[in-house]
Amino acid sequence: MNKYFGFGVLLILIIMLPVNALAEKDDSAKKEFEVPNHVLNISKENTFPNSTEDQEVVEPSELTQELIDGVDVAIDNPDLIKMLNETSIKPSPIAFGYRGMVYIGRWPLNYKSDETNINWEYQNINTNELNNIGGDNEQQMQYTQQNKKEVKGALTNKIANPDDVKKMMLLEAQDKIELPLAYSTVIGKNTKKDNTYSVPAKKYGELQAYAPAVNERGQVTFGEVYFQLKGYDKSIVVKNVTKQGIGAWVPIQDHVSYSFNLK
Which Pfam families does the annotation name (predicted)? Predict the structure, then answer.
């Protein structure tokens, strides 16, 4: 009886190992993108209302999915999928024996991420100062945005179809990081935060504020896309497949990283 019980426990442990390993991996990924204490959300205080840049998730139609499944290379480009959804090619009833190829362009087909990192001090946006060198008592200072500041992200090198590539990279980053991401974010003038910083007597305080951003790096796969017609059958053919490395900076909206120094 004990022999069978021990075997059952061992079997359960073996089954649970991959699940536990996956859970540990997920926890590790979450900790990697955890917001540090010196980074604060200013969405409520921001005097400039940022619009979210949620990307449209385009689901392939039944026919589009069938066409995509018939290709060796993955097709994830939402604009290409949308175009395929809206395309209607119906071979003629008398098309027996007909063969034809319709070229629909060279497209970025998919983006594969190699590395995702966050630079919490991507761009300096503000400096507040308090001179207490001649003072006798401790004073308090706070963050106040002196001027309106727009922070823009961008691709790190030139590439064909940059708008399509930026969309795919943003979708990949949003899938990994539960923070508001956009290629442009604005911090409004006179934006303030209640957190205070103490400047002792005979000291000079300096509070630097930074906009954080995600650095996404990976590879884009390109290919020439054709509709192929063979009688009543339709399919997609992809030719001349190439890959290109690409990187992008994507700002994190309505978040500010603070660095306080005494001199």
Answer: YfkD
